Amino acid sequence: xxxxxxxxxxxxxxxIFEELMADLLALIPTDGTTVDLQDLFFCYTIDxxxxxxxxxxxxxxxxxxxxxxxxxxxxxxSFNYAQDAIAKNTRxxxxxxxxxxxxAEHCNQVCHELVEQFVEKALKYRANYDEEKAATDDDKxxxxxxxxxxxxxxxxxxxxxxxxxxxxLAGRDTTASLLSNMFFMLAKNPHIWNKLREEVASLEALRxxxxxxxxxxxxxxxxxxxxxxxxxxxxxxxxxxxSIVAYSVYSMHRREDFYGPDANEYRPERWxxxxxxxxxxxxxxxxxxxxxQQYALTEAGYVTVRLAQQFSVLESRDPxxxxxxxxxxxxxxxxxxxxxxx
Length: 342
Ligand code: HEM
Prior knowledge:
Blueprint: H1 8-11, H2 14-26, E1 35-36, H3 37-54, H4 60-65, H5 75-92, H6 102-127, H7 129-138, H8 146-153, H9 157-188, H10 190-194, H11 198-208, E2 214-218, E3 223-229, E4 235-239, E5 244-248, H12 249-252, H13 256-259, H14 293-310, E6 313-316, E7 324-326, E8 330-332, E9 337-341
Antiparallel strand pairs: 1-9, 2-5, 3-4, 6-9, 7-8
The structure holds protoporphyrin IX containing FE.
């Protein structure tokens, strides 16, 4: 249902990315003071995703700039907390019933209340579709709104709310994590920053630190996987109906038989002649491939190029190597502490 809302014209709204860039740049010190870019990237992507999805940004970067103290009733902080609680609950499994988290319940409510307002707008748009569309046609500059696209397809308020939440969840932390992991590695490798090719730098960041590092499928019928069985892993594997097959994209992306003996290193130059197929799956593949892939790569590429234009020096301010923080996505445990200079 949401796939038609992701055609190229609709996701390439560079003006949104540029407007937010001004706020992002204003928050980066230029005197060599350490800044945590990961923190700022998470603000950037929630602002852009809420603008794209709802037509209304939650303005977390602007709030930072004006020094507003964020409390538990703020959408961006509540969304972060509620998401971490989902990851924690998944790990606790059946034990989660013994750890009631009232703050998470409150945060869920804050998120739902904000999204409800947009659901109401969507339903109003649907009810007055002809008039609203005529008004839109008159103003050619009007941006495409994901919310309106959704309202044309369904009038079920719960479905609209769930789809909005789902895309916000799928699209926000992922892109922020990609940018954070990539800048962590770029800051450790200044020679790459200097001759940056934004596209290959992000492809390599998604190989070494795939932000969706594992995945699974549930067999709805008996089936056979062509390889993976037997002592050498080359025999077929029978998968009975009802089983769950989990796989690790993280491990696959570091296999030396695919990527060579330096598979564990961040080396974007390898993409000069690398043309991977199913051994490279940051966005998955097949019918459920990520619908936001173009959006994510456009946004990450845009932010990278703008920062590269603005700053010639990017220095790591983290003494250690990259360490993982696995919640719903994979980002850097110690943030992306760097210093930037013109
Ligand atoms: C670096 C950024 C991103 C990565 C690595 C990523 C990765 C993925 C992966 C691996 C899946 C497949 C999940 C599965 O197998 O079931 C997926 C699905 C999805 N992604 Fe992304 N994603 C990113 C950004 C985005 C963005 C920006 C959006 C939206 C604006 C988005 C929306 C979605 C949606 C709606 C699905 C579900 C598609 C379906 O089930 O048909 N993603 N993503």
